[in-house]
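Internal QA ticket QA-208
Title: Verify multi-chain structure generation after dependency bump
Assignee: T.L.

Test input:
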Amino acid sequence: MSKKIALTGNYAIAYAVKLAKPDVIAAYPITPQSPIVEKLAEMIESGELKASMIRVESEHSALAACFGAAVAGARVFTATSSQGLLYMHEVVHWASRARIPMVMAVVSRTINTPWNIWPDHSDFVDQRDTGWIMAYAMDNQEAFDLTLQAFKISEDPSVYLPVMVGIEGFILSHTAMPVEIPDEKLVDDWLGERTQPYVIDGLEPKGLGPLTLPEDTEDIFYGIQLAMENSKRVIKSVDSEYGKLFGREYGGLISCYYCNNAKYIAIALGSWTGDLIEAVNTLREEGYPIGVIRVRFYRPFPREDLWEVLRGAKGVFVFDRAISFGAWGPLFTDLVAGLIQYTNKLPIIVNIVAGIAGVHVSAEDFHNMLLSLINRVESGLEHGYFDWVRIRR
Amino acid sequence: MSESQVKPPLPYSARDVVLPGDASCHGCPIPIALKVLSAVFGEKMILVIPACCTSVIVGTYPGQSLKASIIHVPFASAAAVASGVAQALKMRGISDVQVVAWAGDGGTADIGMATVSGAAERNEDIFYIMYDNEAYMNTGIQRSSSTPRGAWTTTTPILGKGENKKDVAKVLIAHNVPYVATASIGYPHDLYSKLQRAKNIHGFKYIQIHAPCPTGWRFDPKYTVKIAKLAVETGFWILYEYYNGKLIISGPSRPLLDSSKRKPIEEYLKLQGRFRTITPEIINSINEYIESNWSWIKKLM
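Actual output:
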């Protein structure tokens, strides 16, 4: 039987992991991620979850231990944030290049120094080039659903890549909402046993990752690119079968709100899109033809889906909660690079970077920014631009 | 020849695992150690190898020179990956496969130290074997914390290393793991019996194998075993086991408790180009280092 309970974002992820029945969990504490693995430790010690927990001495070792366990045939999970994610970055690459299915939660928090534990997306987008499938949730229910789906996507034979699921620290991780937990038996039947491209368990001699010449190495890496392309289809079919079985379908790689007949489209990732949607609600009521695309999967980058929605748009406003210093927001970079593969006549695309280091951006802030952007386009703005908006109260 | 002098033969079915042909330098000690390891575990071992000479020695994709399983892993991660592998095997009910983290001194004493310490403290059921060639040989003979005092390396090119060798075995004894041993490629039977004893012990097992490197230590490749033996005979490298809270000195080192039985350290040093410019002061300090190691050993016996 499914049930609905109030869960924080962190606990929602922990409950999803429990249903996925991992064999090995390895983790290292970091705020704001820690409650995920604390909950999982409690589940293991109380006997609710039959898994081995390796309480490692660093994040580098957390992912390394998960990597080793996964190579040896275990379903594995870890979670981290910010500095911890940066510390394990080497192994993040290692896992995907070995094509090892695994799942990691990233509870976003900005990057130090100075010490700051508030959320933005800079830790998450920093993993852009690692070869992981990268999903980001907007609320706790979606954090639950994406985590469970991540195992299915990761272990799909046409994908075989690790998957990370992001949520914003504190905004989701430490606030509760009702989350529906599906029936265990249904999940078991749907998710099935772990599958992976190879297992090294010593039963027959095998090798992984020896010195490899350039052409062979390039072929291996090209396989990751192909798998990323394959994963787009898998992500969509997993989303839709999950919808049929458990009642929630999110639209695949992106979610659209008011996109039909929208002249203007705002784009964002993560939970601050909730405030953005609220602002667009108001603007719609005020008669403005504007919609929102929420990017659910940052890798593979959903250029086809974005183009389908944006091809008729007059103005596109990309909100990035991360900054590539010396350039602009990473979503913006990818969006423009994606769209120019379809057209030489781009709509007006503006990039707003905001909410950095946890600065709060309210629905009202979004409303003001969007109104001003629409007015500028309507008054004949000739081309897009980038602005870092530092909101102060 | 009396009965007691006959050494048991190594089961050289080892050649079934360490295949002929690899990418090691002439006189490399590593394949010697791998053969002993293979004689004990056969094909049913998973070597977890971080960046080190062995990463190259075992050959290029798609082949490998060992008929056993190998997982190549990031430099600082061997003990952690091995922990994960061991936990996965346990969860899957596989109990007849040995998980061995196989790393050099750089990957153990330096960049991997925290990871080794973590796995040791958790008492993971793995072997951790450090083959100690006393510098970063694979990257071109740079100084490590396991390089002995006075040794030339490419990052101590004029003055030689100023500090004494870090004693990782001692660090592991301080972790109170079930088994710690030192060994040498000059004494394969000793290494063999240590592996045999340790494989029946549950938990973290650490073995440090002294492994003279002709390329990095600057000696004629035909002297690898001779120099390994000299390291022991001069008392510079002491063979022992530590388990059940006791240190047991191993056969080849036992007579050297009496310092008069030790060969002069000069015999060891003079064969190695890395000590070519060593001063009498440094030789004195090496002798003091040797003496202090022996007094420590005597305390734990």
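Spot checks passed. Residues 280-300 of chain B form the longest helix (21 residues).
Status: verified.
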